[in-house]
Amino acid sequence: MAIFLFLVLTFAPFMTPFVVVGAAVALAVRARDRKPGSGWRLPDVRSCALVTVMAGAAALGAYAYGVMSGFYILDPDQMCAAAGAAGDHVVTRMTLPVSAQCVTPEGEGTELVPSWVNPVVFGGLVVCVLALGAGVSSGWRRRANRVVGAAGTASLAGAGRSDQPSSPE
Question: What is the pTM (predicted TM-score) of this model?
Answer without folding.
Answer: 0.73
